[in-house]
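queue> pop job 88
queue> type: inverse folding (structure -> sequence)
queue> payload:
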């Protein structure tokens, strides 16, 4: 029987799977939007939701728990100062997963995971100035 054997394995051993999820969580908190595979997005969503709930409480203990999980202290600071206050009136469902195109290399189904209140703005491309030839 396979009782209590659910979860996302992601084709990795437990240590590298934990590291992957910690990295994805840290990146999402810092950048507000990341593109990854659908399976990884579905695996990281509940972790990010728990981190935001920690950030909403704002206690020292919750800050220490976030520091123990996330890799960068800057990400913890962003979580507690910027991300969590945006969701104070919300009871859950802080992230969304949008399916995008297939990856060119191996055909994996890609997805964008972002915060609900994220507004996408295209960046202006900088025009590269032509270098003058050296004399």
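queue> result:
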């Amino acid at each position: 029987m396979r009782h209590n054997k659910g979860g996302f394995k992601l084709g990795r051993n437990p240590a590298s799977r934990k590291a992957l999820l910690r990295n994805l969580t840290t990146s999402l908190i810092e950048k507000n939007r990341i593109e990854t595979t659908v399976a990884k997005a579905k695996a990281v969503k509940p972790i990010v939701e728990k981190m935001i709930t920690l950030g909403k409480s704002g206690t020292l203990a919750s800050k220490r728990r976030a520091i123990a999980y996330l890799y960068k202290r800057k990400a913890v600071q962003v979580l507690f100062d910027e991300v969590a206050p945006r969701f104070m009136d919300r009871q859950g469902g802080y992230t969304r997963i949008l399916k995008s195109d297939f990856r060119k290399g191996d055909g994996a189904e890609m997805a964008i995971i972002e915060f609900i209140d994220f507004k996408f703005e295209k960046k202006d491309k900088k025009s590269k100035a032509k270098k003058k030839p050296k004399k």
